[in-house]
Design a protein that fits this description.
Chains: A alpha/beta, B alpha/beta, C alpha/beta
Shape of chain A: globular
GO biological process, one term (chains A, E): tRNA wobble position uridine thiolation
Organism (chains A, E): Marinobacter mobilis
InterPro entries (chains A, E): DsrEFH-like (IPR027396), Sulphur_relay_TusB/DsrH (IPR007215)
Order of helices and strands of chain A: EHEEHEHE
Number of helices of chain A: 3
CATH superfamily of chain A: DsrEFH-like
Oligomer: heterohexamer
CATH topology of chain A: Hypothetical Protein Ychn, Chain: A
Strand order of the largest sheet of chain A: 4-3-2-1-5
Number of domains of chain B: 1
GO cellular component, one term (chains A, E): sulfurtransferase complex
Number of domains of chain A: 1
Radius of gyration of chain B: 15 Å
CATH class of chain A: Alpha Beta
Helix content of chain B: 25-40%
Number of helices of chain B: 5
Distance between the termini of chain B: 37 Å
Largest interface: B-D, 31 and 31 residues
CATH superfamily of chain B: DsrEFH-like
Strand order of the largest sheet of chain B: 4-3-2-1-5
Protein name (chains A, E): tRNA 2-thiouridine synthesizing protein B
Strand content of chain B: 15-25%
Chain lengths: 89, 136, 115, 136, 89, 115
């Protein structure tokens, strides 16, 4: 079962850690809203396959981060449509 | 070709407090544009404030309840605010206004007040259910 | 397969836990299998001896205790969080099962809700 | 003998979402009982929902807007909901209802819609200002 | 200047840590609402002079903790009236 | 002495930062000295190059940049949080002062607000 985890919380929140602790190797992680600042957080180790919403990155001055796959809202729709299961943290 | 996938969107974050209604609307528009359908939008917890007809933001800010209402009506998408969440938080339709003897109702069309059974129905269906939460 | 509702917030300070419980109870009421998992500060929902009269709120302890009667399949509690909040199993309300919060645990549920 | 101390209470957490209105009311009642005065109650952010006249909780739960309104009126305490926070969140008085051409107003007496200047005045005064926030 | 710090957040929130980091030796700490569970949290070190609201302790099954001074709402009023400055976290 | 408004939340995900900024601006408008301190995820308010058009929100960057013009005395930013979010001083909007978040810093303000 391929699970897509969508997290919108800032990485200083305990919920963010609970999301990371729930990830299996084959799972996907999508960062939305305040969660995108995790890409700039020196204390957070993200799985190598992670996605981040373009609009949220741009808003926070984080466009062009090399450690994520940037997707737009249509890309988010495709990820969710392809997932066997979705957990929204 | 995508007709097999349909979404249910549950919004639990309030407008002007969280980004949830904005992210959910952008997602919903993109889903329809790609040929997917949206079975239902369900407001829960603080999310019920998205169904307020009285929100009056400054003219240079989006009126999120109005933007959502127009989107829902324009695309014939059923929209429900959880009645238990809504009554506590001061969102009433005409029927509840009468029952609770208040001076006004304030729910914006096309939102209806219904129970959690609507959400359960989505879970039990083939609809993919996504949650748009607040930032905490 | 069943739905898992996760409660990771302390009781009484917010309504989120109550609204999570309402979701689980609604599933059960409509014959949809549902389980509850308490983790993080959420394990404090299970502490015996809650007396919230001073807060003008209803005791959640009773609601949780009654959950199995209303058809909730499991009351799961995260072992590590119990240790963090120094909760001995004997200090918990009855009917809970201690588990480890892992991807394998979550994989048992086809839908997971975390308000 | 305590007449020198007066409090301003700022409530930023919403009822039925946070415990803030309950803690603040218990504090306020205890303060008056000990002879202290309360200069003003100021609702800000999500706290403005405490001024909704339409909240309709189950009969076995406290109606927090009503409980607060009775306390404020019974003790002649000025109460303000920040107008900017309130308008965005759908709390209107008659004047704003007319200005924004809505079908209803929903603020409960004695709350008034006024600006942050009311809060600044408390900060600049000898009043002790306490905040009752949400849980996040 | 004697500061009274009032915190109502659960100890797993970053705000709780920011409150503790702001305490001077002469300051007072009052735990309210969800913050009272800090008294049961094995990972939190509280200053020895701390107070907790009785109603919040009782609600959460934490009455009778020996590591705090239990006060009621009138006691909270007295603490605030006596403080030179109050910070609500 | 001045009032300190602390912003410890990331921008755009919630309205709390904006409402904190409004408080600081109101103080300044009524000639009450006010300063802003950004700490935790709040330091991300100061990152240059914010483009929130895709969120249908106004840029907070401009509001913060304009704060000194409207009478805000200081834009303080916590050194440790800058490091955590890998923000070099050169990547910040202009006009900020880096400080250490300590009790001694907070002692300079007669009133502290943290929404």
């Amino acid at each position: 079962m391929k699970t897509l985890h969508i997290v919108n919380k800032s990485p200083d929140q305990a919920r963010f850690g609970r999301c990371l602790a729930a990830l299996e190797a084959s799972d996907q992680l999508l960062l939305t809203e305040n969660a995108v600042i995790a890409l700039a957080d020196a204390g957070i180790v993200l799985p190598s396959e992670n996605y981040a919403l373009a609009a949220d990155l741009e808003a926070r001055g984080l466009a062009g981060r090399p450690t994520t796959t940037v997707i737009d809202y249509p890309g988010m729709v495709r990820l969710t449509a392809d997932a066997d299961r979705i957990i929204c943290w | 070709m995508h007709s097999q996938t349909a979404f249910t969107l549950v919004i639990t974050g309030a407008p002007y407090s969280t980004q949830a209604p904005q992210t959910a609307l952008a997602f919903a528009k993109a889903a329809l544009a790609q040929g997917y359908s949206i079975d239902r939008v369900f407001l829960y917890g603080d999310g019920v404030h998205l169904s307020s007809a009285l929100a009056a933001p400054p003219s240079d800010e989006t009126n999120w309840p109005k933007a959502w209402a127009e989107f829902l009506q324009g695309n014939d998408i059923p929209a429900v605010a959880c009645i238990a969440s809504a009554l506590r938080r001061g969102i009433l339709n005409n029927e509840e206004q009468a029952r609770y003897q208040r001076n006004a109702s304030n729910i914006i069309e096309p939102f209806e007040l219904l129970g959690l059974g609507e959400w359960v129905e989505s879970i039990a269906s083939t609809s993919k259910t996504l949650y748009f939460h607040g930032d905490h | 397969m069943s739905v898992l509702v996760i409660i990771d917030q302390a009781p009484y300070g917010s309504w989120r836990g109550r609204e999570s419980l309402d979701m689980a109870l609604s599933l059960a009421a409509f014959d949809q299998p549902a389980s509850l998992l308490f983790t993080g500060p959420g394990v404090n929902w299970l502490r015996a001896g809650q007396e919230p009269a001073g807060l003008s709120q209803k005791a959640v302890e009773r609601n949780v205790s009654a959950a199995p009667i209303f058809g909730i399949e499991e009351l799961l509690v995260d072992r590590q969080s119990l240790a963090k909040y120094q909760l001995e199993p004997s200090a918990l309300i009855a009917g809970t099962s201690t588990v480890d919060y892992t991807p394998e645990l979550l994989a048992n549920y086809y839908h997971v809700v975390c308000l």
